[in-house]
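Action item from last week, closing it out:
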Amino acid sequence: MSSATNATEARELEARGIDAVIAQGFEAGGHRATFSEPYERGHVGTLALVPQVVDAVSIPVIAAGGIGDGRGIAAALALGASAVQLGTAFLTCPESAAHPLYRRALNEARDDQTRITHAFSGRPARGLENRYLREMAGYEAIYPDFPILNTLTGPLRKASAKGNNTDFMSLWSGQSAVMSRNLPAAELIELLVKETESVLERLATAV
């Protein structure tokens, strides 16, 4: 499997022999999967991206980006996805290795609080805005490339976490952070399945 952020990338991946493509919408947290320049061609939201990728390839499509509950899963399936991928939803599970302050930031996040930034690693990634992102805004043209910048900011990120301060931590997050549940992973999966089945059943019986 491999990720694509537009239909062109999805077709290229299929031509190279992958078994399934992950359609990563612009809402997704963490590093962007864009590999075809320019990067801006990957600025496609999940709702628009998934059906376009489904139409572009003959292999299974996995929807990702901004999906945090059964409603989102049902929507992705309705758009033609064979499966979904959730990331941010599991960061607040007790099994997650996320720092306690990172978990709290996710629980307190607003729907408009995430930003795309190159400032931590030199590669575009979506995370919660903090002091570091605000102070580094406007300097994108002089950032060292990945992995140089990632190496340079490593000690800063570690020191911030050790000092129980989120100002300089990389708080990767999708736009669905506000839907975090804080449940054990098994319970979260069970709940997501129930929610999805409930939505699909309601839609099937709607007049």
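Closing note: The chain has two domains: 2-91+179-205, 100-168.
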